[in-house]
Structure formats: structure tokens, C-alpha cells
Amino acid sequence: MNPQLAVPDTIALQRLHDIVQPEAVSWMPQTAGWYALFFLIVVTGVFIALKIHRRRRANFYRREALRELAVIEELAGDPAQRTKAVSMIPVLFKRTALSFAAREQVASLSGQEWLVLLDNSYNGKGFTEGPGKILPELSYQVTDLPQQELSGLIELARVWIKKHKSVLAG
After folding, report:
1. Closest Cα partner for 146 from 59, 63, 94, 82?
2. Could you tell me which of 91, 94, 167 has the C-alpha nearest to residue 124?
3. Residue 145 counted as domain residue
4. Which residue segment(s) compose the domain that 82 sits in?
């Protein structure tokens, strides 16, 4: 081993330092644009959340009507309870309509006017020409409908509850 090389190696080893670590990168944005983008994202999120909340609250009566319709459907399956189920259907339609329209405009409607309003509110003909045409009769005289007619009326009720829109000028 060469003695001259041993000395510089020792000096070189003494001059070594630890590796210098850079500072951690900050997660805070450095420009105003990032703050503006963050603000827009938060505002948009709040706006969307409020819109969803309002829509859910506005459609609460639909969910309740569908639950009540499920009870009616369950009662309709029992022959002993079928007459009670039939008597509940017109009440369900009227209560649901009163949930989205003014009482003065809906409560007094009956007969053909009532059926036309129901048809117009969901853009169909299920009340004036379909299984719903028996609805005015059921409002005043409870009859035991055959299962097929009752099933058609219940399905029409389900479709109407989900799809109706207010057609009344307030």
C-alpha cells in the first residue's frame, strides 16, 4: 500500500458530510389561482348538496305515497282485505295531488274533471281510457274489483306517483 495515498484518503473521509435533505414540500398552494379553484370547488359542492337536499325534501310526499301504495298492494293480496284496499286507492290519489297542488284547485274536483287532471299531470291516458276510469266510482261506492283490474289500478297509481308533475296554474 502506498503511504501517500493513505493520507489523502483519511483527509477526504474527514471532509465528508451527511447528505443534505431538502425541506419538505408544502401542501399549501403558492398561487392565488389554486385558492380560487379550491373556493369554486367548495361552493359547487355546497350548491350541489343543497340542490339534492331540496329535491329530496320536495319529493318526500312521493316516497310516502309509494309506501302507502305498498300497504294497499299488500292488503289487496288478501281476499278478505281487498275491499278495504280498493277504498284506500282514491284517497291516496287525492292526498298525493293535494301535496303538490293548491287545495282550492284539487279538493273539489271529481268525475271526468278529476280524471283529466290526473291524465294531464303525467301525460298519459290511463285515467280517462285505462284502468283509472273506475276511480270516480270507487270514491263514492266501494266495490270489490277483480284482481286483474285492481292490479292494473295499483300499477297505474305507481306510475302516476313517480311521474306526475303539477299542471295547475297557481
Report:
1. 82
2. 167
3. yes
4. 61-163
Kindly state whether residue 131 falls inside one of the protein's structural domains: yes
Give the number of domains in the chain.
1
pTM summary value: 0.70
- Cβ-based neighbours of 155, under 8 Å, separated by 6 or more: 131
pLDDT one digit per residue (tens) for the chain, 170 residues: 555 555 567 777 777 778 888 888 888 878 889 899 999 999 999 999 999 999 999 889 999 999 999 999 998 888 888 888 888 999 999 999 888 877 888 877 888 888 888 888 888 888 888 888 888 888 777 777 788 888 889 999 999 999 888 765 44
Q: Is residue 140 part of a domain?
A: yes
Residue-wise burial string across 141-154, b where 16 or more C-beta atoms lie within 10 A, e elsewhere:
eeeebeeeebebbb
